[in-house]
Amino acid sequence: MSETLETTNLTLFEQLGGAAAVDAAVDIFYRKVLADYRINRFFDNVDMEKQAAKQKAFLTMAFGGPHNYTGEDMRKGHERLVKMGLDDSHFDAVMEHLEATLQELNVPGALIAQVAAIAESTRTDVLGR
Amino acid sequence: MLNITCGESNVACLANETVLDALLKANIPIPYGCRQGVCQSCLMRSLDVTPPVAAQIGIKDTLQKQNYFLACCCHPEQDMTVSLPDQQDTWFEASVIQKQQLSPEIIRLTLQYNAELSFFAGQFVNLQRLDGLTRSYSIANSSRHEKILEFHIRRLPNGQFSSWAHDELQPGTTLTLTEARGSCHYLPGRAQQPLLLIGTGSGLAPLYGIIHDALAQGHAGSIHLYHGSRNSEGLYLIDEMQELAKQYANFNYTASVSGACATETGFAQGRAHELALNAVQSLKGWRVYLCGHPEMVNQSKRMAYIKGASLGDIYADAFLTLPH
User: How near does any CA of chain B get to the CA of A34, in Å?
Assistant: First the structure.
């Protein structure tokens, strides 16, 4: 009981391990995304360093950390991909990789659910609806 | 209060300001994005002092070594002179002292200079002809050679500079050069790390320099060079690389041709990057250098990353050619 109370004083971002955890997650997550034939065509012809930096900013947000993302940024950033046919199935694939990444890092299920909920909240903006 | 010098401007940086804050306040246009050290849009370079550690977090190690930093995370500790990447336009002169045919397609150009120049083998400089025609070429020799720069120049179809260099350029000619640029070079440390180097055509030039640098600095991990071309005309320095492989037990050399001439002896058959990437199960912990054809470089970068190499350990130099 007291343990639970103590941990709830920490933010989600702190519970996950902060910036270091984001770095570890980006490395696993981006590799999974690029290796997935269902979605990797959306990442053709992108600068991998810049893309990894974007993934980091995205995961920082999903981890409840400090970020400057707005819904409008999400919309603009994915406009080109929506034209290429980006839809729910692709968004689902990315969500799958996000959850698998966190499982690989032994993040407790309750925290994974919170991260997934934040990521899920970007769906309509990402898909331009 | 500290002074930031950027080009012609002198800007005051107040106690709580970053270099980015100070420059923007003075209306100096600096690209920026997240303002928290993630997007790296505000990458700048210190031309005098070493930047604060916190301003270099997340930047490629080769760029850290060259005093690059993120302006949005830089609370200066002393006065600094800074510039945007590649805006230092110091030129110097060098004269051609040797021209040697390495293969039907490739010449080695050796230049001598007097200027104070610091560079790493594998970086590139812009070479400019008297009339202003300018092209980028990679440095193939290490800086331990006194005041010498070596380039491998491949004849490109309709290539203005390369045709001139092959057909007309004579020893004694003076060229104008920029300072060395680029992050594709060897850094000491992690001497046990295995190295994978893949090059096509004159992409061997930077790799040749990087390998010599690594060996001279006592790199102990295995070093695997794959040099490929469509046909044997594009391969060169073969004897020298084979000799090096005999001399250093940790250096391995594979030359390959991807064209239809499978009957040629002595070369592996296939594309260099496919041979290289198929030969290893995992690249976790490896350092990877990729130079040459842009498509090869981009594909290999992705494949090397998927195979486990971390992005920070992949050094790439795509040779772009101008459309005609």
Answer: 7
